[in-house]
Amino acid sequence: MIELLKQYIPYPLIKAHRNVLRRWESRKLKGDKVLCPICNSRFEKFATYRPSGRKNTRCINCRSLPRHRLLYFYLQQRTNIFNRGQKLRVLHFAPEFQFYTLLAKQPDLEYTTCDLSPKSPDFREVKDIKKADITQLSFADNSFDVILCNHVLEHITDDRQAMRELYRVMAPGGWGIFMVPLIFRNEETYEDPSITKPSERRKAFGQYDHVRRYGRDYLDRLRSAGFEVTADRYAENFMEHDIQRFGFNPYDRIVLCKKQ
Q1: In whole angstroms, what is the distance from residue 183 CA to residue 6 CA?
Q2: pLDDT recorded at residue 170
Q3: 259 touches 227 (CB < 8 A)
Q4: Contact (Cβ atoms closer than 8 angstroms) between residue 229 and residue 257
Q5: Name one Pfam family in it (predicted).
Q6: At residue 4, does pLDDT exceed 50?
Q7: Model pLDDT for residues 129-188, shown as the tens digit of each residue
């Protein structure tokens, strides 16, 4: 019944009243079959992600998606971002609520958040978010040890310029996670600047505000900007029952970029 009603409720209205909806869904999906590692919530199953219609994907409590939950483990196990006593300058584009709540509390991080539309309802829980155009950043060269920029570049018309800016502001020895909707079986990225209507973009690129579908050459674009790049199928480190319990997409790749 929840999912049926949500089909007829405008998405902005759902976002505006998501706390009420969250309490409702929590009661309806109460259980212990799935676990969100970010907020430690348990449910019978994850909720449907409204924009795409994907079922059993969204944490009812913290709104995490499969990519967030996988990245959470990666950041915990493969990086130094949560290390106590580790002084890091962190830049976080379009800060995901799930990670903002964790990183903003880290006393050793000099944590900067930014987005082109900082007043968007998506960031209403984020304090002191700066307005920034990723293709023309105001930050000085070598300003950040860590950059998080996930599911951003597929929205950017001149993504190569954005990558060059990310490289410029990253400090030598720094690293970043730059995940995008990546179709790894496709060799080349598909983009067509003539496609501008939201309905046509949704059909061509999977979402009304996307401007391309990335293929494997996404990694080459990042390398051309100067980065050393790896695309880690990190979910392969988990047993099948854990992949199901945590709600991972086993095909997601963690795209790690380093500046030597």
Answers
A1: 28
A2: 98
A3: yes
A4: yes
A5: Methyltransf_11
A6: no
A7: 999 999 999 999 999 999 999 999 999 999 999 999 999 999 999 999 999 999 999 999
Instruction: Supply the angle between the helices 217-224 and 159-169 in degrees, to the nearest 10.
Output: 50
Handedness of CA 127, 147, 171, 173 (dihedral sign): positive
Structure tokens belonging to residue 168: 């410029």
Whole-angstrom Cα distance, residue 159 to residue 181?
14
pTM: 0.88
Q: Residue 227: count other Cβ atoms within 10 Å of its Cβ.
A: 23
Q: How confident is the model at residue 9 (pLDDT cuts 50, 70, 90)?
A: low
Amino acid code (one letter) for 62:
C
Q: What is the identity of the amino acid at 108? A: D
Stretch 240-252: mean pLDDT = 95
Indicate the helix (H) or strand (E) that contains 161.
Answer: helix 159-169
